[in-house]
Amino acid sequence: MNNLANKQKNLNNLIEKLSNLSKSYSHEPATSDKLIKERDNFLNEKKKLEIRHDELLREQKYLKNKITDLEHELNKKSETQEKFSKEIDELSQETEELVEEIDKWQI
Predict the structure, then answer these.
(1) Which residues contact 15 (CB under 8 A, 6 or more apart)?
(2) 53 Cβ partners below 8 Å, 6+ apart?
(3) Using alpha carbons only, how large is the chain's radius of gyration in Å?
(4) Domain positions in the chain
């Protein structure tokens, strides 16, 4: 993020310098127009990058929420599976005890 802030600061400085340059020096109209167009191009590029950055932040937030939801669902399923396995083990133990009891009665 720091890198992005530095780039934004540098871009703003460059735009300001271009604006000041066209005001402080006397240039041919073509040179002045060229500087203004270049400044406008930088401003447009900055705007596009800011929009893309906002889109990426929204997408990151959505994906982060989706991951959290999936983790909760996975935890829930794991708990259910553990509970089911425990019940199966208990039933298996009861079955073994019943078989032993039946064997005792058959003797």
Answers:
(1) 39, 42, 43, 46
(2) 4
(3) 35
(4) 2-81
List per-residue pLDDT tens for the chain, 107 residues long.
Answer: 577 788 788 878 877 777 776 555 555 767 778 878 888 998 899 899 999 999 999 999 999 999 999 999 999 999 999 999 999 999 999 999 888 888 888 86
Tokens of 77: 């399923």
DSSP letters, the chain, are -HHHHHHHHHHHHHHHHHHHHHHHS---HHHHHHHHHHHHHHHHHHHHHHHHHHHHHHHHHHHHHHHHHHHHHHHHHHHHHHHHHHHHHHHHHHHHHHHHHHHHHH-
Does the predicted TM-score (pTM) go above 0.70?
no
43: nearest Cα among 19, 22, 15: 15
